Amino acid sequence: MDKILNSKRIIIIVIVTIALILLMGMSIILGYTDTSMMLTYEAFTSFDGSNEHLIIQTVRLPRALIAAGVGTSLAIAGVYMQTLTKNPLASPGIFGVNAGASFAVVCAISFFNVSSLSAFTWVSFLGAAVAALAVYVVGGVGRQGLTPMKITLAGAAITALFSSFTQGILVTNEAALDEVLFWLSGSIQGRKLEMLVTVFPYLLIGWLLALVMTPMMNVLAMGDDVAKGLGLKVGLLKLTVGLIVILLAGGSVAVAGPIGFIGIVIPHIARSLIGTDHRWLVPLAGLLGGALLLAADIGARYIVMPQEVPVGVMTAFIGTPFFIYIARKGFNKG
Hints:
Elements: H1 2-29, H2 37-45, H3 51-85, H4 97-112, H5 117-139, H6 148-171, H7 174-184, H8 193-212, H9 214-220, H10 224-229, H11 234-256, H12 262-274, H13 278-300, H14 311-333
Keywords: Cell membrane, Membrane, Transmembrane, Transmembrane helix, Transport
Organism: Evansella caseinilytica
Protein name: Iron complex transport system permease protein
């Protein structure tokens, strides 16, 4: 029985991996400038400096890689947040992590004229960490401690707080508004490969930690008491999960801005396909997250062509109905 189940899981992961690769290829080929598979191949094998070759190498390739990396990171962060909080609505966007990172970046631009990519990365991590800590502290107040309802309300409150601060700064600083408005809506348009290279080491550390932690997350999913009884250091484990979320969500916001709903939608889809075993769930969620963000980005190029819709708008359009469904289903059970 286990062999049959594992074979099914392997087949699903292989299919999603192929879909991810195909979507990356489509992301490189498709767009306002007309290109083809042959032209794309020639751009990498016999570059001639033409406009089409330049667009493929310097615009579309970085964009495809960034979409795959950010989608993967947000989906894995969503899996870990949902397991840690036992809340089906947990994600970096809903729990204020994205809003905190965004607020920190806007402050850095507005008050300190920060323009360095590495500085953006560290500022984004700091904002994500402060927001995550604030949600944990606010949600844990009271006798019952952290409950799914309390942490959701705390996340909504912290998200609203940081979003209000961000909007307040932008209202009084038009120069900063012009610079970050498109970024705040969540976008990978115009992002350069250097931006991904800057944050990639941190994303890679987050991915590797997430994969290593999967057996322990299976135990933690059974409850804190069970995990303690089996010898796990629950406090250290939760701290490590927090570090993973900060690395993945903070790095993603530094590159692409606060893209929502990937961290909510993908974990539920992955569980429905492959089950709750994190050894399989985390890799599949990462692949699905990258695929979904690539598909959303491709769609964003065509809705109002020749203009583009920010990919964050596309993910919100896709994810909002699913979010409502999960909210009704999850809290009706509670």
